[in-house]
Structure formats: C-alpha cells, structure tokens
Amino acid sequence: MTWSTRQLAELAGTTLKTVRHYHKLGLLEEPERAPSGYKRYDVRHLVRLMGIRRLTDLGVPLSDIPTVAAADARSKEILRALDAELAANIERQQHMRRQLAAILEDGASLGLPSGFGAAAATLPQAQQDLLVASSSVLTPTAMSLIRDQYTRPRDKMDEEFEHLPADAPEDVRRRLAAHLAAAVRAQRVDRTALTDLDAASRRNGKLTRSVVTQSVAAFYNEAQLDVVRLLHGLLQMEEAERGGTGETLREPPPT
C-alpha cells in the first residue's frame, strides 16, 4: 500500500507544505507517481521523513541534516557544536529566570543593572541611573564589588550623601567629603578595582571618563557635586604628597 502526500504528512506529524519544502531542498526523495499523476509514498519515505523531523526537533539546521544523517565524524562535530549552543542557551535562560526571581520575590528594581538586589532598589532614582550608566563601562569585577557594598549594612553618611538636598549647608558638604575620602582610602587597601578607574574600566580610558563624568554631572544635584569636588580636592592633596593621581570612580564634574 502507498500513501498520498497528505497521508504521509499526517503519519509523520507534519504538513503538506513541509513535505514539499523537503522535496525542494533535496532532503526527501521524490516518489513515483501513479498513472493518475498522484505521488505514491511508501514506508521508506515515511522513515526518512520521521528521521528529518527528529533531527529538526533536536535543533539541527536543515542544511546540516544530510551530513548528520550520514553519521560520520563530521556529524559528531555538528552535534557537539549544537549541544554546546543548547547548553549556552540554557545557562542564559537560567540567568534570566534568576533575574526575574530577584525582581518578583526579592523586590529588586528593573531600573538597576543585573544582579543588584532589593537593598539597592531603595536608592534614589538618580543613584540607580548612575549605576546603570556606570555598568556600560566598568568591568564585571568592579560592578560585583559595587554590588557587594549594597549587600552590607549601609553607612549612615553614605545614605546621607545619596539623599543630600541641593541646598545642604557648607559644613555638611565638607563633613561628607571628609567621610568619603576616608572610605576611598579604605578601598585602596581591599578594593583597588574601585579606586583605579583604568583598572575598573572595560572600555578605553577616554570613553570611560566621559561616561563617569557626564553621569555624575547629570545625576547628582549641586550639593552632591560640590561634595565630589571637595572629595577630589582632598584626594589630590594627599596624592600630591605621595606622587599619585587622586583618581576614583567618582570623577569630578566638569567645571
């Protein structure tokens, strides 16, 4: 007994259009025709079509099916490459699920770079925007160190700087600058990747400085900018005595 194209497609769980497409690509041999002109498929066509379907279900591109079906050394290379691609896709999807879980279950913010938890979600929007912009130029190591800072109990003076009003008095600004300078000195000991902008950057230095400088100028208010200027003044005086640069991730805004 033979089958029509429609019957063959039904048996293989596919469509008429797909069977015709496989004929066009040369993947499925054309059958003999009955005197009436209709195609007559037999079990060999069914087995071949089922084999093609199995390979496509595994993700094998149609262009590679003849090679894979030959079951030679080259076919194993193709399957190994496909397996590696699938593994990478699974890891990417698992990462996406972890990020979604952090947002849905832990309260992480959609407005923060990947990996920042609920603690950082309480930051003012300007601070969140600054983190997003910085993530475009900083290395994963530097961003990881910044994330770590938000998993620890927050320093009250850091929070004071983050919420500093634009009309904060001069003595408050100087006090915060001195506090931040002390924090930078501590980071030079155990977080050098956060105090050396060149080491923290994954872009060229000029581009990184432009992003950091513009971000600080755009997302800090006047009082915060003044604190940053005072901070750099303190660091530059210290570095002048030591022969360094006084450079930190908080670049001074343009004047």
TrEMBL record:
- SUPFAM superfamilies hit by this protein: Putative DNA-binding domain
Any idea where the HTH merR-type domain is?
A: 2-71
Mitochondrion listed as a keyword: no
Return the InterPro entries for the record. DNA-bd_dom_put_sf, MerR-type_HTH_dom, MerR_fam
Q: Which Pfam families does the UniProt entry name for this protein?
A: MerR_1 (PF13411)
Q: Which GO terms describe its molecular function?
A: DNA binding; DNA-binding transcription factor activity
Q: Which keywords are on file for this protein?
A: DNA-binding
Keyword DNA-binding part of the UniProt annotation? yes
Name of the protein described by the UniProt record: MerR family transcriptional regulator
Which organism's genome codes for this protein? Streptomyces parvulus
